[in-house]
Specification:
heterotrimer; A alpha+beta (about 290); B alpha+beta (about 200); C alpha+beta (about 160); A: about 290 residues; alpha+beta; Uridine Diphospho-n-acetylenolpyruvylglucosamine Reductase, domain 2; Enolase-like, domain 1; five-stranded antiparallel sheet; 11 helices; C: about 160 residues; Ubiquitin-like (UB roll); five-stranded mixed sheet; 5 helices
Chain lengths: ~290, ~200, ~160
Amino acid sequence: MKPTPFSYHCPSSLTEALDLVAKLENYKIIAGGQSLMPMLNFRFLMPEHVIDINKIPELVGVSKEHHQLRIGAMTRQHTIHTSPLVKENAPLITEAYGLVSHRQVRNRGTYGGSLCHLDPSSEQPCFTAALDGVIEVASLAGKREIAMANWTTMYMTPDLAPDEIMLGVRLDIWPPNHGWSFMEYSRRHGDYAIVGVAALVVIDSNNCIEKISITLCGIDAAPVRLYAAEKILIDHDASDIAVKKVMIEIENLPDVMEDSLNTADYRRHLAKTMTNRALKTAFERARKRI
Amino acid sequence: MSLIIKTSFKVDYPKEIIWTLITDIEKSAPCFPGAELGEKLPDGYYKGNFNVKLGPMIFNFVGKFGFIELNEENFQAKISATGTDAKGRGGAQGIIDVVLTGNSNHTCIQIISNISLSGSVAQYGRGVGMIQAISQQLINEFGKNLSLMIDADSTTIPRADNSVNPKDEVLTNKLSNPQKPIYLTKLVWQVFVDFFIKLLKK
Amino acid sequence: MDQRPINICVNGITYNREVETRRTLADFLRIDLQLTGTHVGCEHGVCGACTVLFNGNTARSCLTLAIQADQCNVTTIEGLAYPDGTFSELQQAFRECHGLQCGFCTPGMLTTLTEFLSENNNPSEFQVKEAISGNLCRCTGYQAIVDATMLAAKRLREK
């Protein structure tokens, strides 16, 4: 239950860090360490090098740029959770962090770390997909951007080359009158979601849906955005009938994760239940803000 | 943890040619990224290594495999494979059934793998669905490489659809450094589970 | 073996040591500094027994490398009492309400709740339960811990 020996590197600038990831093989980056350290302690991972990026200031920060929120990769989850800027512009994120693990983990864990670890049950990739996040990465060769929809190449594997480091994410800010809800089902508070849902909606004064985003986690390797359901609901009444249509889409989801504890059918059932509740909550919140 | 993984792929060659190629381990093994063929053992099995990346974990499986049944008349084969992670994170055993069907133009290769996982790797695997998806990706890559190999190998074997042969350098790139596991392409990031695949190599 | 110098302030005292880079903060505190109040329960971040205050914020010391605490301030259970040795309000309340039995989870509970009460001095029971959801206790059934916290909060408000 102790890590195997490794060489430790602690770059103090982004360039130094990029240099290291370009030349080292068999390394792991340590950000918050909340996912990496258990794997090191269990010896699931035995890297030769550990690169600590906690001393690189340009990777930290929450800012608003035009109609987007920009969050630096090394921003602590607790910082984002308690950020007034985030609460005002993307209350979905604030609500999601209330469900992410426990305070001790959020104090150290980082947004970027979660997105790079990419656990299918994780809340952070889910809200990132819901808000059409764009991920910025850098290497010595320059910068690159990847839409969240394309970030997951495979189970727990992001589109991040070995010589690249994630810089941050830009997220769309929804209109001030939008409704939101992040809900998940887990056996204990703070556990990874078995299934979670992020819902965002804008409703006009006639109770018509102008804009909608519905994303599920715990279903597949990547967060599942219900694009088909969203399309159907544009200009639809924000009603129980709308919700029922989404239920049909969920029922017909083709590839649902399965493991010894939770079958695919159970996950579909949870997805429907949680989405039902989340949509109704999002509708209510939107109506209050018209 | 026990799994049954069903995968399949198609190639545009008659099944007789595919059968000959697949049952010739020294020829078909290079088509698997991350795999290394070792020596042939006195009992007819082959030693093999397989490097594969599953999420953040890199596994190096060491083991042996071999054909335990070859039914050329019906184009059916059965393979037995076992391996353990060189770093002690678990192991796997499998019985893999391979069936070729098709006509003079195309072959469909169906693979049913009965796998049991043990140790950390089973814990980490997290779900049949994920492994199924990854295995299918792996098999697809195997199929593509098989086709490319046949195309580049001999101009006397006509492709079923008479299309132009792919360039040799594509084949070389694909098949070079077969034991270098990760980072080359996302296709290399496959799970080890299907042992027929993982233990074959040049 | 990769060893580095570390300069760390623990409970107000500065230490200069050499550590292997793979040593966790929990092991460093317990083994190198002989501060065995911080307990190691699971070593993978789920039990909370190893919780310390790292630059004022709770952190799981089993998931922190000691080298990462270089130039940092750490407060452990040994540093929660007042300088003259008097128990903090929280520690006193734990004693009075039997908020501990075997005491294994207690250091983690106390550091976690110390942070919690410093931010919320008038919590509801629900909020206390949420605050300790990252700390496992096998003895008390948690209610005594919650009672102790509510009592401590009351006393802190009255102070």
